[in-house]
Amino acid sequence: MKLLKVVPDDTNIDFLKWRGWAFAISLLLMAASVGLVATKGLNFGVDFIGGQMIRATFTQSATAPVAELRETVGGLGYGDPTIQRFGAENQVSIRMKLPEGADKNPELANAMAEKITSKLKADHPDVRIDGVDSVSGKVSEELFSKGILALLAAMAGVSIYIWFRFEWQFGVGAIWSLLHDVTLTFGLFAITGWEFDLNIIAALLTIIGYSLNDTVVVYDRIRENLMKFRKMEMASLLNLSVNETLSRTVMTSVSISLPLIVLVLFGPDVIFGFSMAMAFGIVVGTYSSIYQAAPILIWLKVGSHSFVPTDEGTGSKAERIGADFGAQP
Amino acid sequence: MLDFPRWRVWMLNILIIVGVAFAIPSLLPTSMRAQLAQFVPTPTINLGLDLAGGSHILLEADTSQLAEARLEALEDSVRTALRRTDPQIAIADVSRSEGKLSFNVTDMSKVDAAREVILPLISNAMGARDWDLGVNNGNRIVLSPVSSGDETALDQAMDTAKDVIDRRINALGTLEPTIIRQGENRIVVQVPGLEDPEALKALIGKTAKLEFKLVDEQADPDQTAQGKARVGSQVLPYPDNPTGLPYIAVRRLGGISGDKLVKADPTFDQQTNEPAVTIQFDSEGGQRFARMTQQNVNKLFAIVLDGQVISAPQIREPIFGGVSQISGSFTTESANALSISLRSGALPVDLTIVEERSVGPDLGADSIRRGILAAVIGTTAILVLMFLVYGRFGMYANFALIINVGLILGVMAFANATLTLPGIAGFVLTIGAAVDANVLINERIREELKRGRRVVQAIEFGYKEASRAIFDANSTNVIAAVLLFIFGSGPIRGFAVVLMIGIVTSVFTAVTITRMWVSHWVKNTRPTELTI
Q1: Nearest residue in B to A114, CA atom
Q2: What count of other Cβ atoms lies within 10 Å of the Cβ of residue A38?
Q3: Are A180 and A288 in contact (CB under 8 A)?
Q4: A131-140, B188-197, B324-333, B487-496: which range is least confident on average?
Q5: From the candidates A95, A118, A120, A130, which should be mutated to test the interface with B, based on the most B CB atoms within 10 A?
Q6: Triad B508, B511, B515: Cα angle to 5°
Q7: Residues B213 and B257 reside in one and the same domain
Q8: Measured between alpha carbons, how far is B471 from B437 in angstroms, rounded to an integer?
Q9: The domain over range A15-41+140-323 is classified in CATH as 1.20.1640.10
C-alpha cells in the first residue's frame, strides 16, 4: 500500500532565512494587539464585569430581531442592553448591568430578569429562554483576577519547567513565544468583538499547553542535534531541526485542527468563541515555535557548548529521564 | 525494549478491560442502567449543569452581620449573668462599637467580681478565649473579639447554614441538590434539572429568624413614623399594619426567639379561614412562651420574621402547651414556604446570592448532541488520516485512541467526575494530544528507517527517542491542567479534570499499549521491511 506523505522526504526549507522579517511582523502584530485591547477594549462577558445575561432562541424565526430587541429591552428602564447573536442566527445573548443596589438585594436582579423574559415571551411566542446568568460585581472581579492569575501562573510554571529540562535560553524562548500567542489571541478578541468570558481563559490555557508542546518538540530536536553536530552553524542547525520535525508538526497540527474545525462548524454555539480561540491558537502556536522560539536561541547565543554531554550535565540528565520514561522494562 | 513478558501483557490487558468496563454504565440509556444497577455497582459520569440544565447559585454570608450578631449575643449573656449574680452587679454606659462591647461597673470594688462572672462566658469549650477582656480607667470593662473566635464562629455558622439549606431544599421534594461550602464564607447550591429557580431562591435566601416581641404601646406614632423610638424600644417595618403606618415600635427586651421549634405546619386560620402557620415550641421554648404570655395578657405582641413584623395580635390569654399560630397576609404558597423555613431552622447568618446561573434543559440537550457529534466527526477524521499516513502503525494508533476514549470515560465514571461543555472540548483536545504521541513515534521510526537502520532497530529507536519529547510535552500540559484546576472555577475545572485524566491515559495508550501490539507483531512476523 502506498502511504500518504504529508511532507515530502528530504524537505529542506530555509525557514530561518526570514527570521528577521517574521520577528518584525510578530512584534508589529503584538503591538497592534496591545493597542487594540487598550483602545477598543475586550467585549467582556458577565463573568468578568458582572451583570446579567439572558440567552434566548427564537425557535420559529430564521434570524433574531436584534434591533427590535434593543428597543424593547432598552425601553424597560434598566439601561441599554448589549445584544449579540451567537452561533446560530436565531440565538441571542442579552446583557444588562445589574440594577443599582442589586449587590445587597438580589430581588432587584430577579425582578429585572423576570421583566425582560416576560416581555420577550409576550412579544415573541416562539422564544425559548436558554439560560440566565447573574454575576455580582464582587464575584466577577474575583473571576477576573483568578483568570489572569491562572494565565500568568501557567506561563511561568511551564517556562520554569523548560528552563530546568533544557537551558535558561530555552525557558526565555518558551515564555516569549507563549506571550506572543496569548497577546495575538487577545488581539483577535479585541478586533472581532467576540465575547470574552471564562471559557476563553480555558482556551488560552489550552493554547499555552499546545504551543508549548510544539515548542518542546522542536527544542528537543535542537538539543539532540546540538549534541550530535558539534561544529554546525546555529542557523543551519535550527533549520535542520525544524525540517526534521516538520512532518510531525504538520501532521499534529492537522490532527488537532480537524476536531476543532468540526467544533467550530457543528459544535454547540455556546462554545463558538472557545473553539475559534483554540483553532486560532493552534495556527499561531505552530508558527511561533518555528519563528519565535527557535530564532531566539540564536540571539541568546545558544551553541553546542550549551550541552556538553558530561554525566552531570543537564542535557544528559534530560536524556536519561526521557529514556527511563520511554523504556520501561 | 520490545520485549514484553507475558505477565505484563496480561496486566495491561486486564487494566484496559477494567478501565473500559467502568465506562459502560455511562453509555447505557438510563433504563438499562437502572436494571444493571441491581446486579453490579454502576458509577456514572455526572453531567454538568451546562449540559444537564439546571440552576447554580452561589451564596455569600454577610460577615459583618455575623460579628454584630455575636456582639449582641455577648451583651445579652453578660447582662443576664451579672443580673443573676447575688448580689447583683450593676453596670452602666453600655456601648457596642467597632466590634467591642464596653461598660462601666458602677461599683468600683466589684470589677474583679464582674470579671470572674464574665470569664467563663468568653471561653470556649477548648479553653481558648473568644474575646479579650480588658479594664480601662479602673472600672470600664472592654471585651474585644479575638480573630480566631471570629473564624470559628463563621466556620460553625457556615456549617449550620449548609445543613439548613440542605433541609430546606429536601423539603421541596425530589430535587437532587449538591450543596458545598466554598472558601470561608460561601455556599454553592447546584440543582440539576431545575429550570425555574425562583421558588428555590425564595426558600434558601430567607434567614427565617422568628422572634416574638412586645409592642411598645406607649410609643408616640409620630416619632415611630420618623423611625425614632424611646430608650429600650426599636422601630421595625410592619408593611401590613392595620393602622396604615408601615412601622411599629417594639420593646427590645422581654421577647423570646422562635428558634426552639419542634414543628411548623401550614394551616388555615379558624376564624378568617386565611392561610396561616402553626408552630410548636420544644419544652423549654414552650415554658418561656407561656411565661411571656402569662405576664403580658391583654398586651400586643409582635411576630417578627427576619426583622420585619408580620402581625401583632393581642394576647387574650396565657398560651400553655407551646402551640401557637402565626397569621399575617399569607398565601397558601408563602405559608408553606415559611413553615419549611421555620422547620429547618433559621440561617445563622444572612446569605446573599452573588452569582446565579441557570441553563434550560433544551439548550443543554442541544449542547450534548452537538458536542458529541463534533467529537465523533473529529475523531473519525483523525482515524482516517492516521491510517492513510501511517498504514499498519496508524491502525495501532487508532485502536489505542479508541481504547483511550473508553479509558477516559471509565476513569471519569470511577472518580464520579463531572462532564461539562468545556470538558467535551478538553476531550477533543486530549484526542489530539494522544495522536501527537503516535505521530512523534511514527515519524521517528520513519526517520530511522531512512537513515538505513533495520526495521526492528528503527522501531526500538523510534519509541526511545520520541519518548523524551512526549514526556516533556505532556509534563507541560499537566502543569497547565493542574494550574487550571487550582485557579479555574466552575466549568473550567471540568475542562481541567478531563485534560488531566486524558493526558495520563493518552500517554498510557499511545505509548505503552501500541508498543505492546507492535512488539507482538515484530515477534510473530520478524519483518524485514516496513511501510510507514
Answers
A1: B198
A2: 9
A3: yes
A4: B487-496
A5: A130
A6: 120
A7: yes
A8: 9
A9: yes
Q: What ranges in A267-313 are assigned the alpha helix state H? A: 272-288, 294-299
Residues A139-179 pLDDT 10s: 888 888 888 888 888 888 888 888 888 888 999 999 999 99
- Residue-wise pLDDT tens digits, A293-303: 999 998 988 87
Return the residue of B nearest to A329 by Cα. Answer: B1
Question: Is B315 in a helix, a strand, or coil?
Answer: coil
Does a structural domain hold residue B442?
yes
- Please report, for chain A, the start and end positions of each structural domain, with discontinuous segments joined by +: 15-41+140-323, 51-135
Q: Are residues B351 and B203 in the same domain?
A: yes
Q: Is residue B335 part of a domain?
A: yes
**Which of A179, A177, A98, A159 lies closest to A134, judged by CA?**
A98
Task: Find the angle CA(B124)-CA(B126)-CA(B132) to the nearest 5 degrees.
Answer: 45
Query: How many domains are contained in chain B?
Result: 3
Task: Give the model's pLDDT for residue B1.
Answer: 55
CB contact A159 to B (< 8 Å) = no
pLDDT reported for residue A325: 44
Other C-beta atoms closer than 10 Å to the C-beta of B338 total 25
Measured between beta carbons, the chain A residues lying within 8 angstroms of B307 are none
Q: Mutate one of A248, A254, A257, A274 to test the B interface: name it (highest B CB count within 10 A).
A: A248
Of the pLDDT bands very low, low, confident and very high (cuts 50, 70, 90), residue A311 is very low
Which of 119-148 (A) contact B at CB < 8 A? 128-136, 138-139, 143, 146-147
**DSSP string spanning B465-516?**
HHHHHHHHHHHHHHHHHHHHHHH--THHHHHHHHHHHHHHHHHIIIIIIHHH
Residues 79-118 of A with CB under 8 A from B: 103-104, 106, 109-110
Q: A245 at the B interface (CB within 8 A)?
A: yes
Name the minimum distance, in Å, from the CA of A179 to any CA of chain B: 15
Q: Does the CB of B198 have a partner CB in chain A at under 8 Å?
A: yes
Q: Quote ipTM for the complex.
A: 0.82
- Pairing label, strands B301-305, B308-311: antiparallel
Buried b (16+ CB within 10 A) or exposed e, B509-520: bbbbbbbbbbbe
pLDDT in tens, B154-205: 888 888 888 888 888 887 776 778 888 888 889 988 888 776 677 777 777 7
What is the C-alpha separation between B474 and B492, in angstroms, rounded? 19
CA angle (A218, A222, A227) in 5-degree steps: 155
pLDDT digits (tens, 9 = 90+) for B50-108: 788 888 889 998 888 788 878 888 888 888 888 888 788 888 888 888 888 888 888 88
Identity of the residue in A4, A110, A198 whose CB atom sits nearest the CB atom of B490: A198
Chain-chain contact of A266 with B374 (C-beta, under 8 angstroms): yes
**For chain A, first and last CA: distance in Å?**
33
Grid cell, residue B326, equals: 402565626
Q: Does B251 reside within a domain?
A: yes
CB-based contacts of B149, cutoff 8 Å, min separation 6: B124, B128, B129, B130, B131
In this complex, do A322 and B1 lie within 8 Å of one another by their Cβ atoms? Answer: no
